[in-house]
Amino acid sequence: ADSTVLRGVLQALVGAGWVLVATCNRTPAEFAASTMQREHPQSRFAEAMAEHCDTLQLGDGSRDYREGQLAAPQPSYFCPCEGGSAVPSPAAQLDRCFVDLTGGAAADEEVAIGAGRRMRLVSGRGVARASFERLCGTALGAGDYVALAQRYHTLCVDDLPQMSLRQRDQARRFITLVDQLYNHKTRLVASAAVPIGELFSGAAGAGVIAQARASLLEGVEFEGEAGKAAELNPRGVTANSLETNYQGLLKTGAVAADSRKALFTGGDSLFTGEDETFAFRRAISRLNEMQSAQYLAARSRTRAAR
């Protein structure tokens, strides 16, 4: 749906004589490659971009400009480090930080989140605290995280584990949480099992992706990417009447649940976990930036302007 709307906007702007300048961390060709369907709206949007716009490559993509920023005076991410018992545990460091942020005035609170539901957590002075399991191990989504980001200027999260595609649901929720906190310039303070760069064990290569393909057979839809999920509807649900040639076989968009495994043998990013890996890397990059003095300064300016 988003691709269809954007394609119409692009064509209207070009038709009116506008000059469009945009940045993106994927090329139009990569947009098209993320779906099997040649006539999928995302493919048609990619074709429109290629027709009306010149693509310029800014660097080789090997450098993350979020890394190397000046660290904030107060750390926001606590994980085990060298020093043994002389160094407080991540949990103890988060406890101390939470007390400092709330002035010891935190209390249990029940707050409204998405779809008219409510969530119980501990909060005080605009700071909330909840466990990773409470935030990402239950059926919460982007709307719930937006509600939290709008209500609190700081969110403390206990016990971030190391994740991979084997914990896809929790990992995707955490990525969505990071995205919404980042978009709203909300501070994230967390205790974790591993450093930020090791949070997603599948983000550095394809080995974990290959091992996790079987666990990805169910629930392939990303939140907010319903167009892709239509291509994986169970038998009996009409997903898309358009036909496409895939591995030399003519297939329709309606794919039976017991036929999904065969689709994983192809190279399409929809079925190999490449999109998850891309999202993992982006989340790591954003988490690094969220520990910087620059992010916290921008956060203060943004929230003061609201």
Poorly predicted spans: 203-272
Mean pLDDT: 74
Beta-strand percent range: 5-15%
Distance between the termini: 30 Å
> Which range best describes the helical content: under 10%, 10-25%, 25-40%, 40-55%, 55-70% or over 70%?
40-55%
Strand order of the largest sheet: 1-6-5-4-3-2
Q: Give a short account of the largest sheet.
A: 6 strands, mixed
The computed structural class is alpha/beta
Radius of gyration: 22 Å
Count helical runs.
Answer: 13
Number of strands: 8
Report the order of strands and helices: HHHEHEEEHHEHEHHEEHHHH
The best one-word shape is globular
Describe the model:
- The chain has 306 residues and is α/β, with parallel strands linked by helices.
- It contains 13 helices and eight strands.
- The strands form two sheets. The protein has a six-stranded mixed β-sheet, with helices on both faces.
- The longest helix is centred in the C-terminal third of the chain and has 17 residues, at 274-290.
- Residues 203-272 have low confidence and may be disordered.
In short:
The chain is an alpha/beta fold and 306 residues long. It contains 13 helices and eight strands. Helices cover 41% and strands 13% of the residues.
List the helices and strands and how they pair.
Blueprint: H1 2-15, H2 28-33, H3 41-52, E1 77-78, H4 90-102, E2 107-112, E3 118-124, E4 127-131, H5 132-136, H6 142-151, E5 154-160, H7 168-183, E6 187-192, H8 207-212, H9 226-229, E7 243-246, E8 249-252, H10 260-263, H11 269-272, H12 274-290, H13 293-305
Parallel strand pairs: 1-6, 4-5, 5-6
Antiparallel strand pairs: 2-3, 3-4, 7-8
Helix pairs in contact: 1-3, 6-7, 7-12
